[in-house]
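Deviation from plan, reported transparently: 2'-deoxyguanosine-5'-monophosphate complex.
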Amino acid sequence: MTDCIFCRIVQGQAPARILYQDEDVTAFHDIHPGSPVHILIVPNRHIVGAAQVEPEDEAVLGKLFTVARLVAEEFGVAEWYRLVVNNGRSAGQSVDHLHMHLLGGRRFHWPPG
Ligand code: DGP
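Because the crystal trials were delayed, the predicted structure below was used instead.
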């Protein structure tokens, strides 16, 4: 989708600090980091959010976790980190392209706010 900022990042049409990219998944630094390590991992295909996933997305969505693991290791936060997927405005989703937040480098509390 041309009006989706994450689609534009995936396609190299908008700037981002990309850390990983393959045919299915792209990982890049969050523009407003909420922790010392804050990386977004997205499917290259436009999926609006968790509420719109389909069975055919399962392999790509599983890959988000594999890439998260690799990136966590690369940034030295593999001992503990938090993975977050916000779905819907009231849950904090502001970009309508499914994305996994990888947060690390500080301690986290539970439940989240
Ligand atoms: P969420 O609130 O869960 O939808 O997370 C969206 C995240 O995306 C938020 O932490 C800020 C980040 N973000 C929004 N626009 C951009 C952008 O243009 N570039 C990058 N790198 N991150 C963005």
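The radius of gyration is 13 Å. We consider this an acceptable substitute for the interim report.
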